């Protein structure tokens, strides 16, 4: 070997060993006596045994000058007496014997026998004194670290590499023996397995009998080598060690498994084996053969098995008392309902959010993709059904919910299917095979989608279509019926036919619409029409009494001109294909001015609202049209956008409704929409409104109108009237604070430059295409100086009192001009209103000319508006203006430049929060009075709170005390009630309404009921919405009300007591079935979950939510245990066999309800505070909970079940919180924050397990939490483990072993990557696992 080994021992010792061996060989001595003599001599010389030097001497002596049977016996006896290390001997022999196996088949046979005897006895070898030296020597011989590319060469890792290399050498040798090595990609072995021998190397003389014997021996050796490979893959210890290689040496494993499959398919020797078959060999390396994380057998984990594998919809949910089958998907129901909040527009695609949540729930619940897809469909259907009887108000309604069901959900599933199938294709292209990679069988997700939709037909109660989509559902059912009947009809036919035209019942349901949406996106084909029970029947022929073809998409595609009749038809009927949209888009880009307007009107019609099958294309085309190309004939310094003014205005007004904005938000186009609107605002806000444009309907629009519509739509895309650092938590900015113009542009720019693997994600490709189509370059706020200046002024207005107006400046002149325009009918002498303003003093012209409206760019006017409003409000406070005059003047200003409403909102928002204005009496004389219905509103608010379990004694009615509001709030509400409730005013009220509610909610009670009372007098049909909105503000003023509401959410979901709404529990009790005046005499009860989802964004101190949720979770565990089985009966059943089974069932049922409570708690924390609140929970709340001393709450007879289930509940709760916030993989941007937070938490766990941190909580709770958390992390989120420091994992594993949790300790190390692979291997060997 080398002189390295002989440094510490004189060479004379090894010379004497050789001489003693030669002497024993000549005398034919007993191998045992020889071995004892060698051992005695080496001990006397101080050589540590087993000795690698001795192994090297013996193997070198035998190979090949003394290749005699007696010397092999000497070597075997040395191995038996443990004076040579077996692994090292086998390593030495593998390099010498395997390459010469053809010329020396007997030696190869002896090598295989030694392998069989000594390669599986690893335990004593790793406990030897020379263990590290032995493994280092093996690495020197086989060059394992170099071959496998390992930078770490600790002994345990070398053991894995050694076992893997021995099996691989056998495999390559066998392939070479059967002539199969040439079929591999490399056509050679990485090891010295390919025989390089030539005839002249043979020492034995040739004769026929010897050749025949040698051939037989070679054949037997080949079979034996294959069987040895099988033993390595089957042995409990070595198979797990090889599994570690599989997990951590991916590239090498792919190469190895390809060769093994080649052997399975082509080996004659394998088929001749009596001990192993190709099928058995395949099974030994299949996905399900060795999975360390799924073989946990310790006592605590047997109890916790349900946490790791939640089970299928059909098995698990049945254990949950009162919960429906889909209680597993409660977080999804909450997320979907939360997306319906009209007060916040999400900048992140709902497709991305829902996809991440679906992956998380599928991993944590351990469900099949069939059950996952079914749960998603059911949740989306429930979302639609909750809107069957909606209340009226400026909130997203049925169209948005149908978008979620028929467009967003379908796109989520399409992305998941494409992701799976693209992974399978990539693996095939790189030479890998799918049989070893879990969950990546081509088409599996697609088949699961089909089976889930087939089963969806059993949920008839959810499939009833809302009245507005009955016609579309019927048409989808008709389509299936014609297909089944073998009658081919085109889309033109369905545009003319109605249900009454079909001779049989052809009523459709929501499943028909879902299937059509899937077919449109190539997720299904028309074979779906043949599913049992899908089509309603057959007909023999097309009805003859169908009316003649009316103007429709079909006639448009055939070349019909865009007449008013056809335009109306296309506006009211959604396009059925992408080709139809593309043709309309082409007209919008290349047509005449009138055609552009018509095309824009059509795109913003039914194709946007109800074109579920092509909706993602519709929003994309609209976004592209908002950034139209520069015409070839364009010249001059003016922006090309001015020439598109009529079309742009039609588009902006067409998408300004609450539902349309939310549809853009759900598709993730809010950042792009903002990016398109900013240049429009910049250009048209800089224009002097000297001219106008005439629309096809005769309406004239000015630059001010285009600017105002674009500006107000832009402001809806973020909470512009809120302080920039609102609701900040910890060191992470919240979602609310991120919604700024800068953030929206950064998000849009990120769609241009996406990670390398983003091209595999359909949703990101869509967003990238939308961003690139408008501008392939990043866009920043600095590109829009006028917008940026306004935004800085807006921020300054919120942050501090108004200042900076200087006499004689252009801004001051504009202020005077606007005040004169607003109050031109008021004769106040020669003094201008600005003279009493704190900002300025000057003389006004007093000109009463009706043409006082200034011809100025909108940006110049907006700069002056804060000073105008300040002057007017100050004048009112000093009695210079009456309240009615103030409201009328403000309305005139808003009518003159509707965009000024935004600055008015900004100013009032700031002034109300400053609290410097005196309150005014809403007495009906100076200011409008709420007296007519204030008491009724307050009574309804109390009723809503009472039905959701919230009791606030201090919430007393106003009685006879006078109603007052702060002056800015009184002025603001007076202004808003001057607007009509019509489509023209809708987009302005949608901007002012949330701001008004936010301001009123921040003022002392009962300001909000007063505002609601004034508005219910104005808009009686909005009464329910206004009362409900007013009831939400109670929680802003009273944290105890929030706690009570959270408690109601838990008790309703778990069915722990009789709630006024429902005692059955589950999703239905938590979210109910919508709200509205369904009962005579007032508003119906509101489900607690609905109320909380509409409340939490207004809670200022969101951090306390975490502590309350944890407290309620632990309280729920006690309630679940105490309600599961009476104590008296538990005592009677304690000793009986029936009692044992009963307790097992009781524990399983309790565990399921505990997990439901944990899922609810995790959902509430995640939705309430997002990533920052989850991080606060893990970094601060949990350590404090475990360290602090708690009163013992263990009840007699519960046998510690409360403490144990409490720990498991916390584990499930925390893992879910983390998975919701970070995801289970590393695809989301939030996952980048995971390593730091997770590492800190696991460091805390390891330190506490080590005894470095003293705990105050119940020991059973702590142990259940740690084992449960690790089990979930290992079984459901293995990617997390790879991000944790190796030393922390090892410490935690050691702690688990001290708790007799060896299997869990091994599972943790087994998935910890290369860093823990060695420790995992040693644990496997040590415990014979």
TrEMBL record:
Keywords linked to the UniProt accession: Membrane, Transmembrane, Transmembrane helix
A single Gene Ontology CC term: mediator complex
In residue numbers, the region (Disordered) covers 756-775
Record bears the keyword Kinase: no
Q: Which residues cross the membrane?
A: 1156-1178, 1201-1224, 1262-1282, 1304-1325
Q: Is this entry keyworded Iron?
A: no
Q: Which GO terms describe its biological process?
A: regulation of phenylpropanoid metabolic process
- PANTHER family annotated for this entry? MEDIATOR OF RNA POLYMERASE II TRANSCRIPTION SUBUNIT 33A, OS07G0681500 PROTEIN
> What protein is this chain from?
Mediator of RNA polymerase II transcription subunit 33A-like
The organism named in the record is: Juglans regia
């Amino acid at each position: 070997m080398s002189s390295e080994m002989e440094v510490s021992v004189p060479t004379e010792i090894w010379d004497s060993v050789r001489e003693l061996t030669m002497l024993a060989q000549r005398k034919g001595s007993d191998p045992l006596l020889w071995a004892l003599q060698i051992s005695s001599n080496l001990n006397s010389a101080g050589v540590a045994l087993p000795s690698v030097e001795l192994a090297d001497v013996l193997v070198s002596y035998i190979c090949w000058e003394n290749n005699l049977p007696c010397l092999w016996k000497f070597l075997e006896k040395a191995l038996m007496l443990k004076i040579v290390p077996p692994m090292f001997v086998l390593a030495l022999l593998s390099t010498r014997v395997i390459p010469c196996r053809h010329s020396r088949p007997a030696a190869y046979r002896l090598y295989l026998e030694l392998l069989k005897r000594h390669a599986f006895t690893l335990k004593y070898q790793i406990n030897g004194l020379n263990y590290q030296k032995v493994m280092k020597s093996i690495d020197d011989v086989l060059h394992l670290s170099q071959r496998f590319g390992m930078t770490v060469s600790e002994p345990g890792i070398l053991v894995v590499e050694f076992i893997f290399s021995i099996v691989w050498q056998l495999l390559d040798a066998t392939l070479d023996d059967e002539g199969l090595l040439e079929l591999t990609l490399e056509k050679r072995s990485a090891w010295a397995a390919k025989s390089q021998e030539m005839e002249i190397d043979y020492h034995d003389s040739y004769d026929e009998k010897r050749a025949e014997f040698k051939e037989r021996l070679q054949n037997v050796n080949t079979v034996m080598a294959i069987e040895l490979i099988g033993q390595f893959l089957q042995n409990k210890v070595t198979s797990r060690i090889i599994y570690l290689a599989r997990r951590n040496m991916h590239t090498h494993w792919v190469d190895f498994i390809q060769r093994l499959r080649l052997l399975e398919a082509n080996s004659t020797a394998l088929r001749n084996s009596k001990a192993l078959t190709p099928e058995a060999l395949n099974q030994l390396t299949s996905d399900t053969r060795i999975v360390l994380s799924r073989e946990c057998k310790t006592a605590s984990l047997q109890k916790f098995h349900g946490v790791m594998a939640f089970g299928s919809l059909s098995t698990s949910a049945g254990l949950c008392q009162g919960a429906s089958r889909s209680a597993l998907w409660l977080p999804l129901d909450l997320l979907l309902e939360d997306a319906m909040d009209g007060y916040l527009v999400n900048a992140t695609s709902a497709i991305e959010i829902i996809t991440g949540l679906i992956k998380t729930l599928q991993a944590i619940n351990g469900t099949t993709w069939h059950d996952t897809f079914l749960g998603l469909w059911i949740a989306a259907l429930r979302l639609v059904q909750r809107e069957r009887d909606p209340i009226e108000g400026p909130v997203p309604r049925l169209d948005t919910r149908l978008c979620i069901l028929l467009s967003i959900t379908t796109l989520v599933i399409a992305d998941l299917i494409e992701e799976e199938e693209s992974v399978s294709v990539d693996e095939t292209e790189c030479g890998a095979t799918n049989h070893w990679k879990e969950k990546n069988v081509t088409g599996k997700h697609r088949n699961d989608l089909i089976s889930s939709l087939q089963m969806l037909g059993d949920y008839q109660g959810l499939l009833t279509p809302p009245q507005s989509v009955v016609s579309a559902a019927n048409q989808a059912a008709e389509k299936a019926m014609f297909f089944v009947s073998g009658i081919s009809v085109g889309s033109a036919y369905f545009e003319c036919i109605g249900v009454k035209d079909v001779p049989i019942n052809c009523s459709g349901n929501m499943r028909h619409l879902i299937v059509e949406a899937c077919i449109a996106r190539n997720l299904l084909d028309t074979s779906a029409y043949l599913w049992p029970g899908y089509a309603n029947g057959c007909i023999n022929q097309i009805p003859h009494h169908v009316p003649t073809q009316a103007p429709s998409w079909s006639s448009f595609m055939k070349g019909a001109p865009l007449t008013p009749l056809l335009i109306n038809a296309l506006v009211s009927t959604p396009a059925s294909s992408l080709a139809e949209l593309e043709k309309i888009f082409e007209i919008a880009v290349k047509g005449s001015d009138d055609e552009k307007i018509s095309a824009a009107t059509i795109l913003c019609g039914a194709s946007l609202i109800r074109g579920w099958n092509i909706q993602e294309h519709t929003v994309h085309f609209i976004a592209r049209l908002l950034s139209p190309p520069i015409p070839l004939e364009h010249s001059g310094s003016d922006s090309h956008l001015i020439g598109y003014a009529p079309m742009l205005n039609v588009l902006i007004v067409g998408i300004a409704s609450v539902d349309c904005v939310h549809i853009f938000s759900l598709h993730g186009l809010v950042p792009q929409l903002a990016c398109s609107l900013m240049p429009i605002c910049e250009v048209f806000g800089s224009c002097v409104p000297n001219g106008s444009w005439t629309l096809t309907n005769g309406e004239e629009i000015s630059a001010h109108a285009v600017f105002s519509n674009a500006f107000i739509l832009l402001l809806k895309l973020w909470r512009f009237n809120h302080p920039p650092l609102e609701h900040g938590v910890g060191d992470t900015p919240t979602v609310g604070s991120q919604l700024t113009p800068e953030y929206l542009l950064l998000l849009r720019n990120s769609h241009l430059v996406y990670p390398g693997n983003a091209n595999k994600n359909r949703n990101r490709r869509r967003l990238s295409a939308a961003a690139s189509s408008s501008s392939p370059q990043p866009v920043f706020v600095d590109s829009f100086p006028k917008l940026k200046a306004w935004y800085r002024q807006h921020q300054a207005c919120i942050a501090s009192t108004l200042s900076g107006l200087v006499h004689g400046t252009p801004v001051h002149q504009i202020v005077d001009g606007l005040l004169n325009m607003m109050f031109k009918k008021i004769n106040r002498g020669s003094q201008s209103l600005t003279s009493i303003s704190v900002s300025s003093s000057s003389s006004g012209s007093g000109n009463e000319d009706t043409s006082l409206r200034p011809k100025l760019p909108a940006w110049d006017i907006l700069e002056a508006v804060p000073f105008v409003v300040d002057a007017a409000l100050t004048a009112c406070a000093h009695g210079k203006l009456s309240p009615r005059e103030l409201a009328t003047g403000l309305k005139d200003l808003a009518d003159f430049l509707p965009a000024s409403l935004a600055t008015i909102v900004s100013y009032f928002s700031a002034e109300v929060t400053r609290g410097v204005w005196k309150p005014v009496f809403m007495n009906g004389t100076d200011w409008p009075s709420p007296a007519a219905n204030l008491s009724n509103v307050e009574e309804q608010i109390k009723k809503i709170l009472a039905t959701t379990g919230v009791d606030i004694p201090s919430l007393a009615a106003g009685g006879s005390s006078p109603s007052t509001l702060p002056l800015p709030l009184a002025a603001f509400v007076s202004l808003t009630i001057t607007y009509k409730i019509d489509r023209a005013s809708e987009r302005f009220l949608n901007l002012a309404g949330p701001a008004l509610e936010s301001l009123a909610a921040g003022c002392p009670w009962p300001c909000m009921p007063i505002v609601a009372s004034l508005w219910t007098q104005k808009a009686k049909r909005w009464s329910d919405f206004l009362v409900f909105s007013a009831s939400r503000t109670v929680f802003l003023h009273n944290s105890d009300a929030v706690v009570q509401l959270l408690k109601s959410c838990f008790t309703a979901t778990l069915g722990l007591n009789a709630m006024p709404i429902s005692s059955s529990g589950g999703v239905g009790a938590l979210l109910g079935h919508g709200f509205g005046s369904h009962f005579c005499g007032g508003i119906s009860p509101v489900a607690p979950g609905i109320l909380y989802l509409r409340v939490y964004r207004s809670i200022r101190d969101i951090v306390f939510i975490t502590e309350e949720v944890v407290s309620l979770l632990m309280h729920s565990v006690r309630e679940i245990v105490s309600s599961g089985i009476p104590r008296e009966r538990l005592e009677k059943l304690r000793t009986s066999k029936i009692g044992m089974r009963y307790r097992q069932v009781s524990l399983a049922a309790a565990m399921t309800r505990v997990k439901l409570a944990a899922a609810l708690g995790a959902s509430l924390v995640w939705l309430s505070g997002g990533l920052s609140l989850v991080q606060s929970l893990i970094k601060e709340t949990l350590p404090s909970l475990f360290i602090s001393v708690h009163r013992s709450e263990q009840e007699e007879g519960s046998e510690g079940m409360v403490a144990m289930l409490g720990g498991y509940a916390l584990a499930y709760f925390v893992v879910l919180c983390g998975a919701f916030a970070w995801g289970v993989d590393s695809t989301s941007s939030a996952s980048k924050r995971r390593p730091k937070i997770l590492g800190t938490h696991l460091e805390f766990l390891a330190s506490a397990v080590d005894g470095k941190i003293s705990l105050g909580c119940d020991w059973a709770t702590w142990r259940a939490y740690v084992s449960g958390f690790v089990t979930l992390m290992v079984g459901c989120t293995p990617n997390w483990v790879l991000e944790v420091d190796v030393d922390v994992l090892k410490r935690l594993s050691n702690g688990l072993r001290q708790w007799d949790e060896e299997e869990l300790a091994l599972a943790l190390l087994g998935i910890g990557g290369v860093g823990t692979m060695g420790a995992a291997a040693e644990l496997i060997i040590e415990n014979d696992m």
